[in-house]
Amino acid sequence: MKKVIFAGLIGLFSPLTFAAAGKDDSWYWLLALAVVISAGLSALLVWRSKKLNTFTLKAVGFGAWFWFIIFVEVMIYGFYVGVTK
Cβ–Cβ contacts within 10 Å for residue 37, how many? Predict the structure, then answer.
């Protein structure tokens, strides 16, 4: 499980940084990329969890992971913009 989280966090940092480097990109692409990354990681984490055994628990777990990962991505992007501008 730790390897999955570590790999997910590494995968989380790279695409947003590279996408943010392009000056011609609109923020819609960054939003779409963040949602895709967050949904993918959330689904993976919920699917791999043995404690989430009912649909309700999986739905709540997915939502919690999704918004936590979105928050982390926004904070990373904010730090990136703050440091580079």
Answer: 19
